[in-house]
């Protein structure tokens, strides 16, 4: 049980950090390359930034909630409602991350095939790669949330 709890905290920390890096890199991708292009001109990149911001905020709250529980042994959101919320949100954010990362990947590939490589698509590619890693952290969190939701009561 303790190993699962530690893994949950680690997955949440990883998700928060990866979402922060992903949206920071993509948001910094402004006026780059020969075309002086910016992420905010493309809806796929705006979608990716938005989902990563939401993922960062949610993961940050979850890290706080788990730290609060470890210190006080009281949940911020009562159980079993909190278990349902965790499971649903982890699933939703994992889906949104894979969806936004996929659309941003397609946009980056299209940009490179039309205009060639330069700093703008390189930064976008790096951000999307980190966003995919954040998806993996959310997928692990969803598995742990499922464990907490569906484990047999003792």
Automatic annotation (TrEMBL):
Q: How does it sit in the membrane?
A: Multi-pass membrane protein
Predominant localisation class: membrane
Q: Which of UniProt's keywords are assigned here?
A: Cell membrane, Membrane, Transmembrane, Transmembrane helix
Q: Give the highest taxon in the source lineage.
A: Eukaryota
Entry's Gene Ontology cellular component terms? plasma membrane
Segments spanning the bilayer are 51-71, 129-150
Domain Casparian strip membrane protein: start-end pairs: 3-137
Keyword check for Amino-acid biosynthesis: no
- Kindly list the places in or outside the cell where this protein is found, as annotated in its UniProt entry: Cell membrane
Q: How does it assemble?
A: Homodimer and heterodimers.
Q: Tell me the protein family, please.
A: Belongs to the Casparian strip membrane proteins (CASP) family.
This chain belongs to the protein called: CASP-like protein
Q: Which organism is this entry from?
A: Musa acuminata subsp. malaccensis (Wild banana)
Tell me the organism's taxonomic lineage.
Answer: Eukaryota, Viridiplantae, Streptophyta, Embryophyta, Tracheophyta
């Amino acid at each position: 049980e303790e190993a699962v709890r530690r893994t949950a905290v680690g997955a949440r920390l990883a998700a928060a950090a990866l979402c922060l890096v992903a949206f920071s890199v993509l948001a910094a991708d402004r006026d780059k390359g020969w075309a002086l292009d910016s992420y905010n001109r493309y809806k796929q990149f705006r979608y990716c930034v938005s989902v990563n911001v939401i993922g960062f905020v949610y993961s940050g709250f979850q890290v706080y909630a788990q730290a609060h529980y470890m210190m006080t042994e009281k949940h911020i959101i009562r159980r079993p409602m909190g278990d349902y919320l965790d499971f649903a949100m982890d699933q939703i954010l994992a889906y949104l991350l894979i969806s936004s990362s996929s659309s941003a990947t397609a946009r980056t590939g299209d940009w490179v095939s039309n205009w060639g490589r330069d700093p703008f698509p390189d930064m976008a590619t790096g951000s999307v790669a980190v966003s995919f890693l954040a998806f993996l952290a959310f997928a692990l969190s969803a598995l742990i949330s499922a464990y907490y939701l569906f484990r047999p009561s003792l």
